[in-house]
Amino acid sequence: MHINQTEDNRVSETHARAVRGAHLNLRGLTKRYGGRTVLDAVNLKIEPGEFVAVVGRSGCGKSTLLRAIAGLERPDAGSVNIGGAGAGAGGGAPEVRMMFQDARLLPWKTVLQNVALGLADGLERSRAALASVGLLDRADDWPAALSGGQRQRVALARALVHEPQLLLLDEPLGALDALTRIEMQGLIESLWTARGFTAVLVTHDVQEAVVLADRILLVEQGRLALDLDVSLARPRARGEAAFAALEGKVLARVLDTRQTS
Amino acid sequence: MRPAAQTLPAAARPAATASIKRLLAPLAPWALPVFLIALWQAASRAGVLSNRILPEPLAVARAFYDLAASGELWTHLRVSLWRAAAGFGLGTALGLALGLLNGGSRRAAILLDTTVQMVRNIPALALIPLVILWFGIDEAAKLFLLSVGVFFPVYLNTFHGIRSVDAGLVEMARSYGLSGWALYRDVILPGALPSILVGVRFSLGLVWVLLIVAETISAQAGIGYMTMNAREFLQTDVVLVGVLLYALLGKAADLAARGLERRFLRWNPAYR
Question: Shortest CB distance from A107 goes to which of B182, B186, B268?
């Protein structure tokens, strides 16, 4: 991992972390496809700067929940309220960015142009964002020349260049190999620590949820079935007993869902 | 000394054959045409081929040279090139415009696409009698025939290209604040471009076929006119010059289309 040195330094000053994230409030959020209720009156409050992981078996509605928060799905009932980061927000709508399961880079734009997408004069900031994910030296390459993990890092830089107050991650590491996934988790955690945005991560990987999240939510048949605080100290070592116990507990709960349905 | 003298050529030979191979590699596609021409020349000389059916290659080359020297060739070539360019330009522009409209707007597609698909199934050449009645036999008739023929491949491929742009990319771009013209310029057009260029390439081939027919209907100049005229006077060599010119122009058009693909699709590993 070639994480930028300044980024690394800021990671170590965990206590000096400035929380500039948005808070999120879902009230009675409901979404139906045809006759099927995918989200059933979900209520959820997320504090500014919190890292929340949403787990659940596939088809449980966790991705729909994230897409509804992102405004990509129109809810059939209920509301999504995203608030700015307190005093410094200046009244503008909070920046919300989404990272998709596939990187969704435009293949006809170079890596740097992809990061600068939608910015009028953001080339310098885009370079800085690329540097923070360790890919500045690939700025002028086509996305086709990158590996899967590198593409996701570019997608992460593209989201971060907008300085989001809320970052939504829709299984962004699902298609990566185990080692690259661990590297990416470290990168996401360090950037989150340094920048203080609120993060919502949808994942099917319970270990990933335990590594990254302050809070783990389990979605089951369109409802929140579990809301668990994770109080392990960061960075979290996968081998530790407390870690393993928590992972086992969440996994057992997720698997239990499968038996009852 | 002897071992040294022996190893030197042994080492030099593979290098020499490698460089000869490198020089010959681009010529390989031309080996068959050159061989056929040599065979043709030999057959003419041996009297197997009658001069009236197929004049010897040297006679064709001489006719080519005479036509070029008198300037007649360039007049015809200029007229034909202009016709092809005008017909191709007009047809491509219209096909692109309607393709973009129908690809971008579902409502426009519902209103227009069925009609276009119906008209598409009429071969352009079947319209010749009607075209002569409408436009007479002058340039307007030729322009109409060419642009109608070129229009459909460009339209179809543009329409299809826009419809098949990755919806995930469009969704991503919208969520990053792109809309309207910026969304078209940065996402939809580049995404549709490989397909659009397939249509353009196909049209570039088609325009020569249509031009040949259009120029043999009735014309006062152009390669088609030149060959039809030569037929009247049994100048088989000039007819062959015309046929060869069409082949060369078609090949040049194809090279131009490939150049466009390399230029605009260099991000795509398949075109590098």
Answer: B268
Contacts of A142 in chain B (CB under 8 A): 267
Check CB contact under 8 Å for B268 and A158.
no
Whether B156 has its CB under 8 Å from any CB of chain A: the answer is no
- Would you call B190 and A106 a contact, using CB atoms and an 8 Å cutoff? yes
Q: Own/partner pairs for A247-255, CB < 8 Å, 24+ apart?
A: A247/A206, A247/A207, A247/A210, A250/A55, A250/A206, A250/A209, A250/A210, A250/A216, A250/A218, A250/A226, A251/A206, A253/A218, A253/A225, A253/A226, A254/A55, A254/A56, A254/A57, A254/A206, A254/A218
Please answer whether residues B125 and B213 qualify as being in contact, where contact means their C-beta atoms are separated by less than 8 angstroms.
Answer: yes
CA angle in degrees (0–180, nearest 5) for B209-B201-B207: 20
* CB-CB under 8 Å, B269 with A144: yes
**What residues of chain A, 107 to 126, have a C-beta less than 8 Å from chain B?**
107-109, 117-118
- Rounded Cα gap, residues B256 and B203, in angstroms: 12
CA distance B252 to A13: 65
CA distance B168 to A104: 7
Task: Tell me which chain A residues have a C-beta less than 8 angstroms from the C-beta of B178.
Answer: 117-118
pLDDT in tens, A104-160: 999 999 999 999 998 888 899 999 999 999 999 999 999 999 999 999 999 999 999
A23-53 residue pLDDT tens: 999 999 999 998 889 999 999 999 999 999 9
Contact A108, B190 (CB under 8 A): yes
> Rounded to a whole number, what is the distance in angstroms from the first to the last CA of chain A?
41
- Chain B residues whose beta carbon lies within 8 Å of the beta carbon of residue A72: 171, 175
CA distance, residue B173 to nearest chain A CA (Å) = 8
Report the distance separating Cα B56 and Cα B78, nearest Å: 27
User: Interface pTM (ipTM) of the complex?
Assistant: 0.82
